[in-house]
Structures are given as C-alpha cells and as structure tokens.
Amino acid sequence: ELTGILKGSTLRDLEQDTATFCFLEGDVDSSERLLIFGESWGRRQAEKKVLELVRARPPKQPFEESYGYNGKNYGGGSYGGGSYGNGYGGYGDDNQQLTKAEIRTGFAVSKVMQDEKLEQISQACGAKLTKQANDNVLVQGYQQQVNLAKKQLQEYIFGLNVEEEFTAPSGVPFHVFIAKAADGTPSVLEEVRNRTRVRVQVKAAEKKIILTGMFSVVSNARRDLQAFLGSFVTHQVSVQKDQLEKLSALGKQRFPKLNNFRHLTTAQINKEKLALILSGSQEAVAEAREAVDAFFKEQGWELASAEMFTAKHSISRSGKAEGEKGANAGEKNGGRNKTAELLQLSDMDSAFILGRGGKTKHKIARVSGATIELFEHNCTVEIMGSDIERRKAQKYIDLVRAQRIGPVHVSPEKHDDDDLTMIPVPYDCVGFVTGAQGNFLRSCEEEWGTLMFFCDYQGPGHGQGTNGGPDSEVLAIFGGKAGRTGAELKVMAAIEAKLPLFFTKDVGDECSSEEWGRDSLPLENDELSFALGKDGSTRKKLAKASGCILEYVGNVAFMAGALATRRRARDYLSWLLKQRTGSVYVKTEGRNDVTVVTIPDGLEAVASVFKSMTLRAMEQETRTFCFLEGSTNKSERLLIFSHEKSCRDKAKGIALSKIDEKFRKQDEGWGDHGYDDWSYGNNKGRSGKHSGYNGGYSSGWGDGYDGYAEPEEVSDTFPLKGELSIHVMSQTGPNGEDPVIEDLENRTGTKFTLMKDKAVIQIHGPADKVSQAKRQLQQFADLFITCKVNMDPKITASISNKVSHYIRPMPWISSADVDMQKDTLKIVGHQDSVDETFKVLKELYRDHGMELSDSDVTMKRRDEHPLPVSGSGRAQRAGKSCDMFRVSEDDAAFILGRGGKTKHKIARVSEAEIELHERNSTVEIYGGDRERKRARKYIDLVRAQRIGPVHVNASHDDQDLTLIDVPSSCVGFVTGAQGNFLRTCEEEWGTLMFFCDYQGSPNLDQYGGNSEKLAIFGKLQARCGAELKVMAAIETKLPGFFTQHLGETQSWDEWGTDTLPMHSEQLSYVLGRKGSTRRKLAKASGCILEYVGNVAFLAGHLPNRRRGREYLGWLCDQVGNKTGKITIDTTVRDDVTLVPVPKECIGYVMGDKRKTLSRLEEDWDTLIFFVNTECLPPSYQEDVEGIAIFGEERGRTGTELKVMGAVETKMTMFFTRGVSDFTYQGEWGVDTLPLPGDELSFALGKDGATRRKLAKASGCIMEYVGNVAYMAGSYDERQRARDYLTWLTRQRTGSVMVDLTGRTDITEFQVPEEMKGLTRATSLREIEKETGTFCFFQGDTSTAETLLICGHSAEGRTHAEQLLQDLMVRGAVHVQRPKAPRRRQRQRHRAAPSVRRRPAQPVPESSSEEGSDSEAESGSESGSETGSEYSSRSEDGRLASK
Questions:
Q1: Cα–chain-centroid distance for residue 648?
Q2: Which segments of 897-962 does DSSP mark as H helices, in order?
Q3: Which of 132, 301, 1004, 1060 is most open to solvent, judged by the fewest CB atoms within 10 Å of its CB?
Q4: At a CB cut-off of 8 Å and minimum separation 6, what does 428 contact?
Q5: Which range among 16-25, 329-338, 1268-1277 shows the weakest confidence by mean pLDDT?
Q6: d(CA 1115, CA 1131)
C-alpha cells in the first residue's frame, strides 16, 4: 500500500534533491524494493527521505481507535488526530520535524469547502487541518505529512465550483468591460469567457461582475481581468492655450469613431496645466494619441511632447455569504474585502523590487502591512490593504526604485506618515554602518522589521546631516515606532564603537516621564561587560523579559518603550549589576511581573540545583530573568521575572522539576521534605501529616483513591557509552527536534534524570514504559556514527578554525577534533548532524579551490568501532608513580576543557600522563617527580582562572616560566577573539599561557605605562617561540614598542637571540604568503625565526642561529639580484646537498612561479637555492645548473630524490646510467634496486599509492628514479623497504613465503577459510592506507590462512589487526542475519560462523596487489612517481605519467 507515494513527481523531486537515480524494481504496483543509485552521501539522504515518506503514512487504524477520541472534536474546527507531537500510532520518528503551512483560500472557496473532505484529507495524510478566521486553512504535522496534505488540499480546491464577485474600479467606466469594438471585436468579458470557459453574470446597475465555475477556471479569469486593468496607462500631452478649443472638438468628433474607444477611460483637457489627458488600455491610448498627432499635422502645429504614467485603479472582489445577498453580505464580510491597487513597472524596477529570493518585496510588505504580489510576466505589482497600508507600500516601492538610479531624496514633509526616523551618520562611519555588502543594515532591518537606507548621499563635504552639517550623512529608517527606535539605537551603538563619545559625551542617568520615551543609564567598564554577556546574550535576555528595547551605546544603556517596560528594564539591570558584588533582595509585593518559587527547607545545595548554566538555559528557553534571592547556597526563593505570565509559568514548571530531581537524589526520601503530590495512594510505611509543598496531599498512605491501583513503577538506568555524551541528550536537534530527554519523557510518560557523575540516564516510571523508553534511547544511540576525514595539509588550519566555531557547537555532535600533526579530522555525532558538517567542509574546500574526495572520508557506525588498543590503560604506566586527588565538579569541567583540550594541553606541557574521571571528579597524574610536580602546578593555576585572577610569583618558576609585559591597550589584541590568539600560540609551541596578577615588581612596561603580565609555561624553545609571537602582535598594535632603538645584534652564547633589521621590501619577500617563507627558513635552519616589526629575531642554539642568519641573508640578497643564485663552498658545509639539473629541465623542476620547488620545501622542511656556476664541481657538465638543498639530512635526501625523479622523467638515464643493485652497510645511507618495466608499474601503483604504502610501512624514504628504486634511511629502514619491495614483486608470478624468525616488524593474523572472501584486495588496501602497514597472505593465496601484517610501527600493526577482526565479525553477522536491523549486529561472541562462498575463482583475490590492476593501471607507467606530480606543469611529464 506504500508504492502509491513512490511514483511520478515524488520520485523526481527526490532525485532532484539528492542527485540520485531511483526507480521501483519490477511491477511498480507490487514492487518490494526501491533502488537508489548515486554517490554515498546522496544515497543516504534519499534513503532518509524515503523513510520519512513511509513513516508519514497514516496508521491502519483510524485516529479514534488509536487515541481514544474523535478528531472532529479536537480543538473545535480542526480535523485529524492532533497528536503528532507524540508519534502516530507506533510510527514514532525522532528525526522528523514538526512544521505548519497556511493555505490561502479566500471567502469564495471557504464558503463551499466541505468539512467532511477536510477530515478525509486529514485521515489520509496524518496532518491536522484547521479553518482559520481569515478563511485560510492551517496544516500542521510532520514535514512530509504537511506536504502530502497541501498537495491533496490544493487538488481538492482547484476542483471546487465557486462563485466570485468583482466590483469595477471607481475610475473605470463599466462599459469598458462589456462594450464591443466598432469592428465587432468581442468585449473584454466575452474574451475572458471564451478563453477560460468561465460563466459570467453582469450587474451593470451595481457595476458588478460575477464569475462562476471551477476554482482553477475562476482564478484564470480573475488573473486575466487583473492583467487587463494592470496594463492601463495615462498620457499627458502638453498643448498651447490657443489650441484648447480645436482639441475639444477633436475629442467629440474623432475619438468615438476609434476602434478601441471602448477602452478609453479618460479623454479630457486640463486648462490649468494646459494638458490633454488620455487614460485607458495601452491600445486605446496609443490609437487616441495617433489621432492627436494626425490632427496636429493637419493644423500645421509642432508635435506635442507627452509624459507617460501608469494608471492606478482599485478593484474590489468578495464572495457572497451563504444565505445572504447584496449589501448584507458585504456588510457582514466587509473585513474580508481587500482593496487592491495595480502598478506597472519596468523590467529593471520589477527585478529590483523583488530582490534576491523575494526578500525586498517581503520586507516592504512587512513594514507597510500591505499584501504585495509581483507578477513578473507583465511587471505588474498588486498592492492589497487599507488606504494607509497601500500608501505606505507605494511610498516604499518608489523609494526602493529610486535607489537603483541615484541618490534617494527623503524629506519629512513629504515622506513622513508617522513612520520615519532620520539619524545623522558621520562620513567615517558610513561604510562601517553599511557593513560588507550592506549586511549590517540588512540585519537591522530583519531584526526590527524596518526599511533603512542612506538618502542624498553626495560624498564628503556635501552632506546634509542634521547634527554634523557637511560631515555626516542621513540614514532614513521607516517602520513602526518600536522597530524604528530599536534600529536607531543599533546604529547609534555601531557609530559609538567607531567614534567613542559621539552620542554619549554628555549623557547621564535620565528617566523620562512620558508614556513612550527613552531612558539612559551610564555603566562602568566592568559593569558593561557583565551586563552585555557573551555575544550580547545577557542584554537580549533582559530586553525579552522586560519587553523593553535595550541597547548599549558605548558605556550607556539606553532603554526605550512604554513607561512600564522601561521601569522593568531599569530594575532588572540594577539587580543584575548588584549580583556582581553581593546578594540581591527584592520586594515582590505589588509587582505583577514576578513569580516566586519557594525553596523547600530540606533541599540541600540549592546552588547546585540552579547552577549558572541551568538558569541561563531556563532563561533562554522561557524569555525570563531569574536569580536566587540572597545567598545562593542558602536562598529561600527563586525569583522569575517577565512581563508575560505564560513565560513565567513555563519557567516555574522547569524550576519545580529541577527541585524534584534534586529530592530524588537525596537519601531522606520524598515524603519528609519533597512534593507530597507524589505521596498519595502509595505511602506505605509512613503516616501522619507531611510538610507538603504547594498544598500537596498531606494525609497518610490510607487516603489514596478508593479502588484505584497505580501501575507498579520501577527505576532503571541507561548507560551513555562510547560516542554518546551527556550534553547531546539535552540539546535541540539539528532540524529543530525537541531534546531527546524531553521528547521521550512526553512520549513515554516516564521521568528522566541525567546523572553526569556516572554518565548514565535514570528512567523512572511504569515497567512497560521504562522498557519502551530504553528501547527508543537505544535506537537514537544506534544512529551515531564516527567519521574520519584525511585533510589536505594546506587547509588544516582553516578546518581547525571551522571545527571550533561551527562544527563542534552543532547540535547532536558529541566531539569534533583535529589532529594537526596527522592532518585528520574526527567527528562523532548523529548521522543527520554529521551530514550537516559535510556541507560546511565541502564549502570550505570549494573556497580553497579544492574538492573533498570520498576516498578521504571513512564512516563507521556506533556498533562498528574497533576494539580498544591492547595494552592501553594502566599497563602502559607500569613503574610510574601516580598522584591522585579530587576536585570539585566545576573544576573538573574547567580542567577538562572543551573536547578535553585543556587536559591534553597540560599533559603535553608537563610531559605527564593525566586521567580525569568525571564520574567522581578525580584526577590521576602519572610520571616522574618533576613531571607530576609541574602537572599539579599547572592544574592549580588553571583552577585559579575560574574564580579570579591568577597569582604567579617566583615560587612557580621551575625553569619553565617566562613573564612578558603586555601594554594594557594591547591585552585584548593579544588575547584575541574568545582567546583565539593565545590558544593558537599554545597549540603551535606546546605552551601554557595566561594573564596573571604577578606578585613581584610593579606592573609597569619599559616606558612606565600600565601593563599586564603574561605568563608562559613550557620548555625553553617553546617559551621563546611563544614570546616572540606575542612580541610581534604587540609591535603590530604599537609600532616601535620593542624595535624603536634596536639594531643588528649577534649573541655568542650557546643559546641566545640575534636580531637583524630589514627593509620593508625585504620583509615582504622573506615573510612569504601567509608566512610560508618564514616557516621554511625556521624549519630548514632549526632555529626560531619571528619578525617583530621590521626586525627579524632568531633564537636557538648558536649553529642553528648562524644557519638561519645565513639563509635569511641569501633571501634578502635576492630582492635586488635578478639571477637569484648564491655562492657557497659545498665541500666545507654539512647542511647542504648539491644536485645537478640539466638546463633544459630547469623550468620543469621549478614549476610555474616556483610552485613545485616551494611544495618540496614545505613537504621536506628544506630550503632550495640555485648556485653560481663557479661553485659547481669540475665533474659537472657545462649544460647543467646546480641546486643546493639546505636542511636536515633526511629532508635533504627526500628532496634530492624527488628532484632526481623529475629530471629522470625529462631526460632518461641522466642519473641511473650504470646504477645497479647496491646496499650501503653504514647506519645512514641510500640503497638502489633496479626494476624491470613490468615490475616498476606494479610497484608504483595508481598515482604512486603502492610506493607510498611501502615507504610508510617500512619507515624508509622510497622514490623511483627512472627504473631504479632508491631507498634512503637507517640500515634497518632500508632493509625493511627492500624486503617489502621484493615480496611485493614476487606476488606477480607466484606465492610468497617469508621466514619470520627474528622479525619484529610482522604480525600474523589467522583468517578462517570461510572468511577469506571478506579479505578482498580492496578491503586490505583500505586497511593498509589507514594503518600504514603492508598486508599479504603467506604462501599460496588460494589455500593460505595466515595473513602477514608488516610495518615498523607496532601501534599501526595492532590497529590493522583490530580492523581485520572487526571485518570478520561484521561479515559473519551480516551473513547470518542479512535482514536484521543494524543495532542487532552486535553479538556477544566473536566467533565467525561459516558463510556461503562463491564458486572458486582462478584469480587470487587475497594477494596484496590483486593482480596487476589492483593499484597499478597495468604496466604502462614508467619512470618515477615524481613525473606524475610534475605532470600538471609539462606535457612531457603528463605523457610520462600516462
């Protein structure tokens, strides 16, 4: 019965939205499978939408049987079950979103619409349909239900027979509609009737037209009549005074003979203006104008000029009420009669008024209160509403049109209909107030429902500002009084931020006694930050609770609105500020804006019940202002303030639930101090009177309801394991769903308690309901997945920023962490939320000109995670001492930090291992005495940040502390937005940084000014790097602060700092794009390099500083040196490798604008220069250039081999002529191994994948130069690489047997015979790529059961082993229960049952390379992979890679 909804347009829409191809398999009427083809992301989205379609179908039983009541009796005029908030007869779906839609019908349709039909549609679609007072129909339900109901309702409406009545506009003679042309052309009504087949009835005496027929037919006829009236124009022809008499005769003699005279509504002479006015349809006016021009020619007069205007006519339409006729119907339904005004526009004006996505049109309609329809096919605007609404809409449209062609001229005398406010904006602030692409003004308009634009803007010196004369521009604000005031204060705040004291210079504490007015209240700096809140949340909270407009302009709080609202806002703000320094007591008698919740005497730790975060969340949800009166720990009253009683009642309900939750946790029980509402009928063992709360039942257990037995109630727990975190359970869903806890409480009738210390949810209620709640919690948990993304290193920093600001705060995201070293992103969350994160990631990739590949994304469901790494936990800490101590719950959260970042930071800086157990707030520190002491010190300092300033003195310095003075004016700049700059420095240098109240010398900077102390903890090199980073930031804010009298210095200490001043053109060159050149210099030289102003600071060991100074000097010399070559003696240096490059290969090796060399420098942490010819050894040929590579030996070797591979691609045998199989016996060296052509393509792999795999598994540098494999590294690394390469090439021709005696780099994994089908080559390749290993079967691939996992990293081999075990278990369960839900795939036992095997295949599918085409594209790849990397820059390289 569900195939009916998966046909036709539904599937097409599904394909369009998800970029898939879908169809029903077999006979569409009896199909059992819908097939969805496309990419994985699109298929998941399509599957989700199909499930929503299926779940949106109504249950088989009618609503009356499912819910015990009749839908017709629910809510008066509503139809349907009305229980979509609690699921549909077992079709509960946590992922669906409740929505509503209003269908515009009008009186004519509403009169004939049958209630029974609405009920049928409601029953068929599961949505709730309600008739509105304005004759519209409101549809409510889940999204898919609403869509289905809208579709069926529209089909029903279009088939109704309706009768609609039109009244001719007052300015249009009625004969225009019914008169025929002189040549016999039918009248307008006849043409409309013939074209639409509508039945027409004319009442000429009443100037009314009645259209009867199907709604679709009547709508078409009405549209044609409106288009006809909308095409009317007016010509105003200028004439001379002596021409008036003859023109009057013209009108009487010739105009009646015109063929279109019937459509000429006006033809008259205005003697005052000396003008002939012609009005009517375009054809009639054009014909009349031709007659006038012909007459002028006959008289020998000069042709008259004319102006053309759009004619404005009003039409009225209404239905006729049942049982009423004529005027009575109009009187009773006069409120429904809409007067419409039609306006003709040009194409450009039409597009401008519509705006992007119709935003401008909706904005004008919202501000004016009129209904605006824009018909793009004929550029006609229909404005419906009262006279004042239409006048305002017309005015706004004219002003918007004026913006398109020039400055807008606004004057209060002409444009002020009590809807205009004009504010002066200084020229310096015009761009700031406008915002990027007008964003600030658009946001103000959206927030306050106004229309805003600058008027008469003529540039500096020509302004017409009211308060600044020629130094300001005027901003016009149109809208209601409250909206204009709010937008005005918003603009004032922006100007004040740009020009302090512009508005608030002489503003004091002022209170207006007017009913509508504006008050002001100056605030101190510390009070302002407290009253503002994060992102203005506190200000918004006070404004919503008081009903007053509240805005901070500079340090002054402006309160605008009615007198009562301003008084409330002032009270709330004063109470808020008092909370900073002490307790607050409020006299609540006589106030109508407060609800008091009395705290029971027996409630312990009141402050923990109503913690700051709890109250803030309650305020946000209920639009109230709440606080505990008096001392928070001993408070007796919770005060809830709001001007709306419903908001206070909602907040009170939440507060009572919090109190009840606390009582449940107390050992005294419920009856003594808690809610006696819970004590009736079941208080066995207790008697007498209780001190009930809020008038609850106070009798003993025998006073329960007679004959009523409550169902047995039980308590059970649901553990939050793995990816499911506490905060997710109380979050609103990504599509607006209610929090899971709240939704399931309402749906199951149970009580949930979040126990954060134990990471469990306690469920209390009837036994069957508790089981149902646990079941649905498990279903929700099964939808959580883990996603791992391998990122491009170029955008890792950008993604890290996106993760912090966008992805991690997303609802239902448990965690999102970026590994900067491995360039990976791990996201754990609900599958819907993870899908949303990919939209952010893909957009970020596109912004950088890249695409996110599916191969870089790995998805795992909650039940598919690998087991924890063996050996983890306490076993790894054997022999290490441990310090254990307890902290408060708040301290534990602060030490942990968002996503555990603070804890990891402390562990990294102290080099200790830290475990924080959130269940009991216990901290364990493992390590040596020094590491544990430092970790404890850092933890104490972090805890101190939570409650006040951090005090640091000499006792804190264990040779790990650096203090730096930061001028007070730079503290905010150094801190960064939300502390981002300090956090970035900590991440980059592995330090711990915070401002402190230093107990030592006075806080004066080197110039005697006020300053703050910034403490930097960490190793010497890390502290030095972070210190220079901070100095560079201060120097940017205060030029010359550190470098004013600083010249070139050079230290001869083993560890020290050198300085080198540079010119501005040199600085930009050695800095590079986004600091890339500076980072390359630092990595290649091994010293710390930072530019503080125009001075380069080099810090580190003496040899490293010398190298850094030398490299920096060479770069600076290249600014004016066109050749860009250096002169060095390579025989006396140990930090350089010289590589010969043929001159004809220079361009290929460098790449476009040196991009290829720059990429090599970044990949290998090296620096590359070209050397002069005289520096080359005598053995070099004349047609070669020398490339000098500087850096560490490993990086130089990797870069050298890459360059050799590129040269060999262009010039075969340049490096490999005469090279044979060679093994160097020393510790560090380079081995070579020639490979035949067929083996080379096999060992290279597609895009070099196999080569990279072998290099990663062996830990060796491996490159193919021509047909020779070069292996560089230590002896063990080279030996492993040679072995792996040999085993790989042997697989092409036969089986491989490996002697495992004495080998520590191989792990054996036994694969049962029946499970070998799961270890296909593609599966092994994915495991190898993720774990950095090399895997293949020992012996004959068709019979072998031992899989060898090779790799130098024991952790990587263990990870690969776990992935293989996971693969075995998933495969076994899948075969045993092919149709079981995913959550049932988790089995207690791990033994893999036998599986059905396919017939034996001759091709071995378990080998490491699966034949010659598993990773290599069959033996056509020759040369090194470097050729493929260089192929985008040269056609020869592209051919080589092919």
A1: 32
A2: 901-910, 929-947
A3: 1004
A4: 498, 499
A5: 329-338
A6: 22
